[in-house]
Design brief:
There is one protein chain. This protein is α+β, with helices and mostly antiparallel strands and 203 residues long. Helices cover 34% and strands 23% of the residues. It contains 7 helices and 7 strands; from the N terminus they run ααββββαβαβαβαα. The strands form 2 sheets. Strands 5-2-3-6-7 form a 5-stranded mixed β-sheet. A two-stranded antiparallel ribbon has the order 1-4. The longest helix has 16 residues.
Length: 203
C-alpha cells in the first residue's frame, strides 16, 4: 500500500553523524589554490580547518561580564588604566594591528571594576575595525557603564597593513578621544601626567 507524500514538505537528509565542515574551510582551500599551493600536501592538510577555527574564535569573542560597578566616594578624582594590549583586524586589508589602550574617567558616584576596561577593549577589538572607531567605541562603552560623561581614551597602534605592504615601513598611530571635562586642557594635562612614557610617546 503506497502513501502520498506532500510535495511541499521537504525531505530531511539522512543523518550521517558527521559535522558539516565550516564554509570558511572551502574559502581557505580556494585561497591556497589561488596562491599556487597544494592544500593536500602534508604541511597544509589541516590549515583550512585551523584557519576557519581562528576566524570563528576571533569574531565570536565573548568578553564576559562588563557591568560590575562599585560606589565611589569622590567625583573629583581622575582614574586611569593603562597598558591594555589588544589585537584587531584592519577592515581595509584584513591585516592585523595591535593597540595599546589607556582609559581615563572621572567617576560620578560609581567606579567600574578594574578588569572590565580590558574586557571592553577586547570586545571592540575582536571585529573588523579602524583604530579611530575602536577608540570611540571604547569611550562610548566606558561612558555608558560608568554613567560618566568625563571619559578619555588613548590608543597607540602598529598596523601590519602599513608595515607589510605599500610603503612597508613600521609606524605608530595615536588616536585620542576626549569627552566631557577632559576637553579642559588642565584636566587633560593631569591625565597625561599620570601616564608612563610608553603611553605618551616620550622618553
Amino acid at each position: 500500500m503506497s502513501q502520498d507524500v506532500d510535495a511541499s514538505t521537504p525531505l530531511c537528509p539522512p543523518d550521517t553523524g558527521r559535522q558539516q565542515p565550516d564554509p570558511l574551510e572551502r574559502i581557505a582551500r580556494e585561497l591556497l589554490l589561488e596562491l599556487g599551493e597544494d592544500p593536500e600536501r602534508e604541511g597544509l592538510l589541516g590549515t583550512p580547518a585551523r584557519w576557519a577555527r581562528w576566524w570563528r574564535e576571533f569574531i565570536r569573542y565573548e568578553p564576559g561580564t562588563l557591568e560590575t560597578v562599585f560606589e565611589s566616594a569622590s567625583s573629583a578624582e581622575t582614574i586611569s588604566v593603562s597598558g591594555i594590549e589588544v589585537w584587531s583586524l584592519c577592515e581595509h586589508h584584513l591585516l592585523p594591528f595591535s593597540c595599546k589602550v589607556t582609559v581615563g574617567y572621572r567617576p560620578q558616584g560609581q567606579v567600574l571594576g578594574l578588569s572590565k576596561f580590558a574586557r571592553i577593549a577586547h570586545q571592540h577589538a575582536h571585529r573588523l575595525q579602524l583604530q579611530e572607531r575602536l577608540t570611540a567605541d571604547i569611550a562610548d562603552t566606558v561612558a555608558k557603564l560608568t554613567a560618566s560623561a568625563d571619559v578619555a581614551v588613548l590608543c597607540r597602534g602598529e598596523h601590519m597593513c602599513m608595515a607589510m605592504r605599500g610603503i612597508r615601513t613600521p609606524a605608530t598611530m595615536t588616536t585620542v578621544t576626549w569627552r566631557g571635562s577632559f576637553a579642559d586642557p588642565a584636566v587633560r594635562a593631569e591625565f597625561l601626567a599620570l601616564q608612563p612614557p610608553s603611553v605618551t610617546g616620550t622618553r
